[in-house]
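User: My advisor, Dr. K., asked me to get a structural model of this assembly before our group meeting. I'm new to this, so sorry if the format is off. These are the inputs:
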Amino acid sequence: MTLQLDFPAVLERWPSFLAGAALTLELAFFATVLGALLGTLAAVGRGTHNALIAGACKVYVETIRNTPLLVQIFLVYFGLASLGLKYSAFTVAVAALTINVGAYTAEIMRAGFEAIPRGQIEAAEGLALSRLQIYWHIILLPAIEKVYPALTSQFVLLMLASSVCSQISAEELTAVANYIQSDTYRAFETYIIVAVLYVILSLVMRAGFWGLGLVLFPRRRRLGTPL
Amino acid sequence: MGGHLNINHLMFLGQGALWTIGLSMIALIGGGIVGFVIALARISPLKSVRIASAVYVQLVQGTPLLVILFLGYFGLAAIGLKVSPLAAAGASLTLYVAAYLGEIWRGCIESVPKPQWEAAEGLALSRTQRMMKVILPQAIRIATPPTVGFMVQIIKNTSLASVVGFVELMRSGQIVNNSLFEPFAIYAIIAATYFAMCYPLSLFSQRLERRMGYGRSNLAPA
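Assistant: The format is fine. Below is the predicted structure of the whole assembly, which you can bring to the meeting.
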């Protein structure tokens, strides 16, 4: 049997593909923003002297990083349902992705915090900056700048991982593909198109983060070197 | 709905867990072999080989594993090969793992200090000799912690093989859940089992890393 590909039959569904890609980006956006916040908090929590908070943050990070996203999504999905809470698939997907990427972000941010030289903090204390000022200007912002490349590739990976949300019927790109292939019987063509769309989305995200980096870190832009 | 979780269900989950380990081994060995070729191709003296391997890595790293699995499953069927879920999952995971391991290992090969390359050249070793006798033995030491760390990702990613009908741990959990309908309890057991498989590897990787004193293995997919 020879391979016969019929792309036009699938491509005429382009509005569905675009809607799916838009929802994938939307999922990735919310999960990135919320996950970055959660992850930074968890990284701060892991560094505190309160053993209870530090322990809880460690358990969170290690549990999430050592179990598959698919299992986490099902646990959130059925966990909320068994508590009697009804949320849309989109909300559940954002929640599960946020919890997931938060753990990875925490680990990256912790590396960033650890890379801040002790002398910088002492110098800031010597200049009588307040605790809050030190945390913001001397620790948090430089740490983000240091780990920015690692963070952004984690967020691109998150966008790709959001394909797993198709399993709880969030109507993102992969779910759209599953529907179209069952409708047209053109599975191979459908998934090739979807793969290309994902590659484009990840290139767009990389370019976007690169541009954002130029805006956020003027020092890097002017000197061409990271901190 | 019917009955409670009993020993037979747990045996079935155990069997699934064994298949998860089996599929992980297939992905690690297959992906390791192809990944090694990719790593060498990425630093090849031929520009066309470098570009081709870089494109391969970019394409695979820009596509979700789930889509690659569907492509493998339906793609092999489309060219007339009748494939079992195991073959489709094994082939897809091999291609996926190869792109990531290839990139990790390229970094490790390139991080062997420059004077080592020059010294080997100065001793008139051939390209192959330089690679086999000087660079790779040192690169393997550097590569061990991130590779062990990536094995955690492989084990977690095999859970996606459930969507093409391969009965590994995740799929066996879904099957048990279909008869019992106690999703929270069952998926909690599944999660705990994955954790039991992955956490020792994570700890081992961290210990190796500390012993080496540098390197970061944590930047791998969710």
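One thing worth pointing out at the meeting: The interface with chain A takes residues 58-59, 61-68, 70-71, 74-75, 77-80, 152, 156-157, 159-160, 162-163, 170, 183-184, 187-188, 190-191, 194-195, 198-199, 202, 216, 218-222 of chain B (CB under 8 Å).

User: Perfect, thanks a lot.
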